[in-house]
Amino acid sequence: MFEKAVRLKLRFDTPKGRVGVEDLWDLSREDLTTTFKSLNTQLKDAQEDVLFETRSVGNKELALKVDILKHIAATQVTEADATKAAKARREQRQTLLGLKAQKEQNKVANLSEEELDQMIAQLDAEEGATSA
């Protein structure tokens, strides 16, 4: 579909002006929607004027433009959903890491005085060994 559009050097009339296929990816959702509605209306009007089912070259180009805009919109929605899901996973991971750190602190806090003294003595011994 995109190869055909590039070969035909399709241009789209958008609220931002006349753009090529590659520039459609940079348009806002509102601009894509406006462009789609305009092209879709043109396509419907062109199809209503046809008595027989043979499509003119202009109708084929309009249909291709509409299909391209539908594809771009679907891709943007999929990418936005994937970004949201990745963000949610990162946030959940951070929460889990925080809970794990709390549990480790609670584990140390629940040690007896003798166990804490042993850990301190061991750390002091290791520090003395490395500084010597």
Structural write-up:
It contains 5 helices and 2 strands. The chain has helices spanning 2-8, 21-24, 29-48, 57-109, 113-131; strands at 11-14, 17-20. Strands 1-2 form a two-stranded antiparallel sheet. The chain is rod-shaped. It starts with a helix and ends with a helix. The mean pLDDT is 88.
Please provide a brief summary of the model.
The protein contains five helices and two strands, in the order αββαααα. By secondary structure, it is mainly alpha-helical. The longest helix is centred in the middle third of the chain and has 53 residues, at 57-109.
Keywords:
single chain; two-stranded antiparallel ribbon; 78% helix; rod-shaped; mainly alpha
The overall number of domains is: 1
Count the beta strands: 2
Q: Give the uncertain stretches in residue-range form.
A: none
> Quaternary arrangement of the chains shown?
single chain
Helix and strand element order: HEEHHHH
Indicate the percent of residues in helices. over 70%
Gyration radius over CA: 31 Å
Tally the helices: 5
Give the strand content. Answer: 5-15%
Which class of secondary structure composition applies to the elements? mainly alpha
* Gross geometry: rod-shaped
Mean pLDDT: 88
Spatial separation of the terminal alpha carbons: 72 Å
Strand order of the largest sheet: 1-2
* Main sheet specs: 2 strands, antiparallel
